[in-house]
Design brief:
Elements (H helix, E strand, L loop, with lengths): L9 E4 L3 H13 L5 E5 L8 H9 L3 E5 L12 E4 L5 H7 L7 E4 H9 L3 E5 L4 H12 L5 E5 L18 E5 L2 H4 L8 E4 L13 H13 L6 E5 L3 H7 L5 E5 L9 E4 L2 E5 L6 E6 L11 H13 L4 H9 L9 E6 L2 E5 L6 H10 L4 E6 L9 H10 L3 E4 L3 H16 L5 E4 L3 H11 L4 E5 L12 H22 L2
Helix pairs in contact: 5-9, 7-8, 11-12, 12-13, 14-15
Length: 474
């Protein structure tokens, strides 16, 4: 696809991580081509990469600041970064019929569609992508790209070897507007999210559905048949379908039964036990569902059961996902900063081994409904709630409503704007042999740059304050 742009006027829209990657690839093809680079931030707010480009590349023009979308119609090709929604662009009213809006994801799919394993879901996609990458690299060369790994265009030259595979974690932002789907797709779940980015829930579901909408008859789709939204999306795919579920259901290719992971080959209906939970007991139970699609793909790529077990035994999940960061003062501290929607926090409350005595919630607004979470907090018996703005206040108000309605006691409530204060309160309030859980149910941007920074701050302060408590108790 990119070769078609040689004589086109190109705008790179959005100068984050993917924008950098796009610029580097275009310069590799056309060192002397004029390019325009647009972003809502001013140059001093961008990273040092762009400052260097502004000083050394005389064939670029920067279009920066609040009016950065106003002149899109002047360009024949706009390569959009995922942080800028199609709806923002359309609202600006500047796109004409001659302007092609594409993305790094679409360009990479055009180049290497048949080498790509695309993975999406509202939650669990990072862990599943990391797990698939970990297992398949036992067999061949595999690259982790997309939302979690490297920007896909950084791997352009690796696509020249057809045996190379690319495990591509695809967010709704990356899938939005796609007119091409990966050869192999894994669809985990689908629930409300990102209502700050999409104009409505149907638009979010439609974006996610692009993972499978354009698949062909010889493609592959592995999907969670217990999720009705996923099942509906899967019905539009022409691919060979391999459904799975948490437990045995009709047509399930892989499922858990009596602590055994069962695989059933569709070709000969042969049933085999891949492993028992005891054999991988070092993993957190939260990963059990992520393992299922990974094992299906591993079997398709002809990994032996022994290779699968060995691979799982050495797997370490990505940080910020039900990560036990340590135990101090007889309290377990869990970092689940990647839980940016209420459903993820509800799941975390149900999966933590110890009783969750203190829960840290709240962050920036993205249109979520927190009522079910409020009900779960009261049901689970959380004793202490520490809340960050902005959504922390919404969660507090709903808990108060639900507590009064159902005659249940309120947890102790604290509001904060700093992680240090949150952790200090956690040590003061949390009962021994119980857990403090950071699972915000919200995006991070009210107080932190991203969920990784938020999780790192939780880990840092838990360690610092925890070591002080343990030293004082000696």
């Amino acid at each position: 696809m990119i070769e078609k742009f040689i004589d086109k006027k190109i705008l790179i829209l959005g100068l984050g991580r993917e924008g950098e990657s796009t610029y580097r690839l275009l310069r590799r093809f056309w060192p002397e081509k004029n390019l325009v680079l647009a972003d809502q931030n001013q140059l001093h707010d961008l990273n040092d990469f762009w400052l260097k480009v502004s000083q050394t590349d005389k064939r670029v023009e920067f279009l920066l600041g609040p009016n950065y979308l106003k002149t899109i119609n002047n360009y024949q090709v706009v390569i959009r970064s995922p942080g800028i929604s199609l709806y923002q662009i359309k609202e600006a009213g500047t796109v004409g019929p001659e302007t092609l809006i594409t993305s790094q994801t679409e360009i990479f799919l055009e180049k290497a569609r048949r080498q790509i394993i695309g993975i999406t879901g509202t939650k669990g996609k990072s862990t599943t992508a990391a797990l698939i990458h970990h297992l398949l690299q036992l067999k061949q060369k595999v690259f982790l790209v997309g939302n979690m790994g490297q920007p896909s265009l950084d791997n352009w030259s690796m696509t020249d070897r057809p045996e190379n595979l690319f495990v591509y974690e695809m967010s709704s932002h990356q899938l939005d507007g796609l007119k091409i789907s990966p050869h192999q797709a894994i669809f985990l779940n689908l629930m409300p999210d990102h209502l700050d980015y999409f104009p409505g829930l149907d638009f979010y579901y439609q974006a996610k559905g692009n993972l499978v909408l354009h698949q062909e008859a010889d493609d592959l789709l592995i999907y969670n048949q217990l999720d009705p939204n996923v099942t509906k999306a899967a019905s539009f795919s022409k691919a060979i379908k391999k459904p799975y579920s948490q437990s045995a259901k009709t047509n399930s290719v892989c499922f858990w039964e009596s602590e055994q992971l069962i695989y059933q080959s569709a070709e000969d209906s042969q049933i085999e036990v891949i492993l028992t939970w005891k054999e991988v007991a070092g993993l957190h139970p939260a990963i059990k569902l992520n393992m299922i699609p990974a094992v299906i793909l591993a079997k398709i790529y002809q990994l032996s059961n022994q290779q699968i077990k060995q691979g799982l035994a050495t797997f370490r999940p990505p940080a910020h996902r039900l990560e036990l960061v340590g135990q101090w003062h007889d309290i377990s501290f869990y970092n689940d900063s990647a839980a940016t929607i209420p459903a993820a926090t509800i799941s975390a409350l149900r999966l933590i081994d110890e009783p969750v005595d203190t829960l840290i919630v709240g962050g920036s607004e993205k249109g979520s409904d927190f009522r079910e979470l409020a009900q779960e907090i009261l049901k689970t018996g959380v004793s202490n709630l520490i809340a960050f703005p902005v959504t922390g206040k919404q969660i507090i108000n709903l808990i108060k409503e639900e507590a009064e309605l159902n005659k249940k006691p309120l947890p102790q409530i604290r509001e904060t704007t700093t992680m240090k204060e949150a952790i200090e309160w956690a040590f003061q309030l949390t009962a021994p042999q119980k857990a403090c859980l950071l699972s915000p149910a919200s995006a991070s941007f009210s107080n932190f740059k991203n969920y990784q920074v938020r999780g790192d701050a939780f880990r840092e302060w838990a360690q610092k304050i925890g070591q002080r408590y343990d030293q004082n108790s000696r």
